[in-house]
Design brief:
alpha/beta, TIM Barrel, two-stranded antiparallel sheet, 12 strands, 45% helix, globular, binds iron/sulfur cluster
């Protein structure tokens, strides 16, 4: 059946999802985070409110996603490879022209730049409470080109949903998208430990759920309390172990640097211990980046929190790699990390420590140089070039088209590293 332009509508996709789900089809079963108190987390702090979505609403999104998919196939984009993305803006305009005012009602809310907190505009563009046409088209196309096999159901803690609801939703999704073989969610360990029974977690698994991504961040009770994570180390372990016993795969995020200079060692040691007790399938490293206007940023300004420097954060990672006593994968797939430490423990422990020690053995000046160059590479990788303000800041130190860092005074180098880090997508 031919898909008419006027029948296409955008739907709500999950702006925030794990990197392994970048090419996943996503649906929002809830919006945002009901906890929303973690002091380091900028995700839902700026206006977004938590809500649960009804099955009818989610079903409508599933229907819209299938219409978009049929349309993309009809337009031949399925065979066009990655060049197909360049055709989407024109197609979106044709859809808008055909739909007229009906679609305009669902167009993104325009926010004047001056209404956005300074420095957060780039981050906040990931959060949309209203569906956008280009984003929906991009999303379905990326899923198709990425193999059409995985689906992520957001937002921040889908374990708070009843297993029956999740099961019914997964069935609704599988029907129009039969190629899907993996369904994953974000979850809070607290929910798994305190709200869900083992039988309910098993029911999630039977319903078709494969994996839960948990934000553990730290294994130190002191750090967890300070950043208002709302969970203890024992609850982390209980929730994650219970989840695995129910047959679900479990991945955890940890945040080197979250204990600041004060609790750096305790944070690393206790986190290694919690990971050992959980024994997750993988551990993703996300080094702390203090976002502007978060409660942690305010604590920093008041002097209640002192950041660990980059070498200290790397030493934390070293301690974790050294002390985690279980089989698990360490993954560094975030621009927040200075070093790309990847490997399977215990097999690759020595190789990862060798890599870390290579950095730690550098002189203070060479550490800064390493950081400046690698942060700059990450920035160019993310944005395809230098932004105007960065080009201006680096201008005096450029020579023959490249960076000539020899003459950069140390405080200026620190300032440049901070500037670049503040603009990297984590
Ligand atoms: S639970 Fe997750 S999404 Fe919610 S505030 Fe904490 S880190 Fe952010």
């Amino acid at each position: 059946m031919t898909v008419s332009l006027s029948s296409i509508r955008p739907y709500e996709v999950c702006s925030i999802r794990p990197p392994t789900e970048n090419d996943s089809l996503t649906f929002r079963l809830t919006r945002n985070c009901y906890w929303n108190r973690c002091t380091f987390c900028p995700a839902y702090k700026f206006g977004a409110r938590f809500s649960k979505r009804g099955l009818a609403e989610v079903k409508e999104d599933i229907r819209r996603a299938r219409v978009i998919y049929d349309f993309l196939l009809q337009e031949g984009l399925g065979e066009a490879g990655y060049t197909a993305f360049s055709r989407l803006p024109r197609l979106a305009q044709q859809i808008r022209d055909a739909a007229g005012p009906d679609l305009e009602e669902e167009a993104p809310e325009e926010k004047a730049p001056e209404e956005l907190p300074p420095g957060l505009a780039w981050f906040l563009r990931w959060f949309k409470d209203r569906p956008e046409l280009e984003e929906s088209l991009n999303h379905v196309l990326a899923w198709h080109l990425g193999g059409s096999r995985t689906c992520f159901l957001g937002d921040a803690d889908s374990l708070i949903l009843k297993p029956e609801f999740l099961g019914e939703t997964i069935q609704e999704i599988k029907h129009p998208f039969p190629s899907l073989t993996r369904f994953t969610i974000y979850g809070r360990t607290k929910t798994a430990a305190r709200i869900r029974t083992p039988e309910e977690l098993e029911a999630f698994h039977r319903a078709g759920l494969d994996r839960v991504h948990f934000g553990v961040e730290s294994g130190s009770n002191r750090v967890l309390k300070f950043v208002r994570k709302g969970v203890t180390r024992d609850e982390h372990v209980e929730g994650a172990v219970k989840t695995q016993e129910a047959g679900l795969s479990c991945g955890v995020y940890v945040m080197p640097g979250l204990g600041g200079a004060r609790w750096s060692e305790e944070h690393a040691r206790d986190t290694a211990d919690v990971i050992t007790r959980i024994s997750p399938d993988y551990v993703r490293l996300r080094s702390l980046q203090v976002f502007p206007q978060t409660p942690l940023d305010e604590a920093l300004k008041r002097g209640d929190f002192q950041e660990a420097d980059e070498a200290q954060v790397v030493r934390e990672i070293r301690m974790m790699v050294e002390e985690i006593d279980t089989e698990t994968d360490i993954v560094s797939d975030s621009a927040s990390n200075l070093l790309q430490i990847n490997g399977r423990l215990p097999r690759d422990r020595a190789a990862m420590i060798y890599e870390i020690d290579g950095f730690l053995s550098l002189s203070p000046r060479d550490k800064r140089l390493f950081s400046l160059e690698s942060r700059l590479r990450a920035f160019v990788g993310q944005y395809g070039g230098l932004s105007r303000d960065l080009a201006r800041a680096l201008g005096p130190y450029m020579k023959g088209g490249g960076l000539d860092p020899g003459g950069i005074p140390t405080p200026e180098m620190d300032r440049l590293i901070r500037l670049i880090r503040s603009k990297l997508m984590p």
